[in-house]
Amino acid sequence: MSFFSFVAKNPALAPLFVIAGTGCVGAVSFPAWMLMKHPDITVNRSNGHPWEKVKQDQNTKLLNMHKEFFDNRRNMERPKF
User: Fold this and answer.
1) Domain that holds residue 7
2) Structural domains counted in the chain
3) What distance separates the 2 farthest-apart alpha carbons in the chain?
4) Quick check: 15 pLDDT over 70?
5) Which of the residues 65, 66, 74, 81 could staple to 57 if both were Cys, CB 3.0 to 4.6 A apart?
6) Radius of gyration of the chain (CA)
7) What is d(CA 39, CA 20) in angstroms, rounded to the nearest whole number?
8) What would the pLDDT profile of 42-68 be if each residue is shown by its tens digit?
9) pLDDT of residue 50
10) CB neighbour burial string for 58-77, b if at least 16 within 10 angstroms, e if fewer
11) In sequence order, which residues have a C-beta less than 8 Å from that of residue 8 and are 6 or more positions away?
12) Structure confidence by residue, pLDDT tens digits, 17-36
């Protein structure tokens, strides 16, 4: 019995498989995206320090509750140490 014939016999299970499949794809793709794009995670050390490339007004968080904080930092000078 193939998967599609099983779903054809039980159509009420189709949303369950779609939602579970979407969750599995998201559970694999989000950590892969974090490994490739997030500046706090370094896998390849040949590109230096990626967190130094973050601009002063750039948000690196997934969820930001205070967007005006980064808007206020947009025109500030870069600090010199």
Assistant:
1) 1-37
2) 2
3) 69
4) yes
5) 74
6) 21
7) 30
8) 776 676 676 677 777 776 776 777 777
9) 67
10) eeeeeeeeeeeeeeeeeeee
11) none
12) 999 999 999 999 998 988 88
One-letter identity of residue 13: L
Can you give the pLDDT at residue 3?
Answer: 85
- Quick one: tokens of 76? 């500030």
81 pLDDT exceeds 80? no
pLDDT for res 22: 97
Q: Is residue 12 part of a domain?
A: yes
Nearest to 37 by CA among 23, 56, 54: 54
Report residue 23 as tokens.
């969750």
**What distances in angstroms separate CA 11 from CA 16, 27, 32, 55, one per listed residue?**
10, 25, 33, 50
CA distance 33 to 6: 34
User: Which letter, b or e, does each residue of 31-53 get, where b requires 16 or more Cβ atoms within 10 Å of its Cβ?
Assistant: eeeeeeeeeeeeeeeeeeeeeee
- What's the CA gap between 38 and 19, in Å, rounded? 27
